[in-house]
Design goal:
The chain is an alpha+beta fold. It contains 18 helices and ten strands. The strands form three sheets. The chain has a four-stranded mixed β-sheet, with no helix packed on it. A four-stranded antiparallel β-sheet has the order 6-7-3-8, with helices on both faces. Strands 9-10 form a two-stranded antiparallel sheet. The longest helix is centred in the C-terminal third of the chain and has 22 residues. The relative contact order is 0.09.
Length: about 425
């Protein structure tokens, strides 16, 4: 605990909390207020931590809708509790990091989802054409406190640290002014939860390594690659039992399966079914991007096309940066064309009257007869957005000049830089 409250460690924790920002907790204190609050309260807080009497406040419950249905529950700690969790994380991470598996990629320094996807594709290309795709049911909501603390206690001996971690785990969940006690789970939202998840699931990693299995784990998302369906089913059954008996965790049967890798997705990616097993973007990831673009364009009905593009660009850049590993260029080209069609649809909707449509298309280079005929064709916005007259009036170059980023260009740039 003396390492946790040490000045340099607390200063680093403060800078990271301020960098990450985040919403206020149950006390309503913002990140901007933390410095002044610490000046008045740090001496007392530090004494409580060293004595082992510090008690965290309840976390604020926030339910985030999932794209596949249901909600993901976040527990937002107060800013002061986030500071202490971050300070704990900075002391504990270097101690536990050497004990983690090479096949664990989530929430670890120097490791990423892309590395996990690349390794998974490597296993598939090596001939392991069956995957045991395991999804842990409500993992962060179901973590058993005694089980995870027993794993922490293998390495951390300070009883004050162990007591503080338990208090963070047991801090109540508050929603609409009502606090509910917690007896299990480590809600996402605080700096400590990702580390605790890796500490707990490290037992699973070691079990799979002992069996000499090829696997990739990113947080609670684990894929095991095998050569036959029969061995995959056998492993699924035995690992299900291991999780239940040793870690008190259950497998989400609806989301888990033994299947071909190209029939499943892993961290938003999949692979092609041909011999090369190229990395591709999963269909659900593509649909999620399309839905985000649709929503953005719906919100942009009353704004200029330039403004709509300015809103889209960060979304497109971020998405393509994450999916830069994809090896199927055709998919990206089709998406680029789809985004342009969506913007043409927005333009057509904004040109509400046939006279306006005729005038705009003439100003964009269409001859008078074609512009008039197209403006009164009676078809809907989406049909017109993909028709030749609108493609002629607003070709790819038109959108490039307005500043729209190209997914193909971003992908090419990222491939060259790597």
């Amino acid at each position: 605990m003396s390492q946790v409250v040490e000045r340099a460690n607390m200063q680093l924790a403060y800078s990271r909390v301020m960098k990450n920002r985040g919403a206020p907790g149950v006390d309503g204190m913002r990140c901007e207020d933390l410095k002044a609050w610490l000046k008045a309260n740090w001496t007392q807080m530090k004494q409580q931590l060293l004595e082992g009497s510090y008690r965290p406040q309840a976390v604020r419950r926030v339910d985030i809708p999932k794209s596949q249905g249901g909600v993901r529950t976040l527990g937002v700690p107060t800013v002061s509790d986030r500071l202490i969790q971050q300070a704990l994380h900075q002391v504990m991470q270097p101690v536990f990091e050497p004990t983690f598996s090479e096949s664990s990629y989530g929430f670890r320094p120097g490791r990423s989802a892309k590395q996990a996807v690349s390794k998974a594709a490597e296993y598939t290309r090596s001939g392991k054409n069956w995957v045991v795709d395991m999804d842990l049911e409500k993992f962060f909501d179901r973590v058993n406190h005694d089980v995870v603390l027993a794993r922490v206690a293998r390495v951390v001996e300070d009883p004050k640290v162990l007591r503080l971690i338990r208090r963070f785990l047991e801090a109540g969940m508050m929603a609409n002014g009502v606090e509910t006690p917690r007896y299990e789970g480590t809600p996402q939202g605080g700096p400590l939860s990702p580390l605790l998840s890796n500490i707990l699931l490290s037992d699973l990693d070691r079990e799979l390594e002992t069996r000499k299995l090829s696997f990739c784990r990113y947080a609670d998302d684990a894929n095991i690659y095998v050569s036959s369906q029969r061995s995959g089913q056998r492993i699924m059954d035995s690992v299900r039992g291991f999780l239940a008996n040793r870690l008190k965790l259950s497998v989400n049967e609806a989301k888990s399966a033994v299947a071909r890798p190209w029939e499943r997705k892993f961290l938003g990616y999949s692979v092609t079914a041909n011999k090369g097993n190229k990395i591709r973007i999963a269909k659900t990831s593509i649909e999620r991007l399309k839905e985000s673009v649709r929503n953005s364009c719906r919100q942009g009905k009353g704004m200029s096309l330039t403004h709509a593009i300015e809103k889209l660009n960060p979304m497109l850049r971020g998405w393509m940066n994450y999916f830069s590993l994809t090896q199927t260029r055709t998919t990206i080209e089709k998406l680029d064309a789809w985004v342009r069609r969506r913007l043409r649809c927005l333009m057509w909707r904004q040109w509400k009257q046939p006279k306006t449509r005729e005038s705009r298309m003439r100003s964009m280079g269409l001859d008078a007869h074609r512009a008039w005929k197209s403006s009164v064709n009676g078809r809907g916005p989406w049909w017109n957005a993909g028709a030749r007259h609108m493609i002629s009036a607003a070709p790819p170059k038109f959108f490039t000049q307005l500043g729209l980023v190209s997914l193909v260009s971003i992908h090419q740039h990222l491939q060259c830089s790597t």
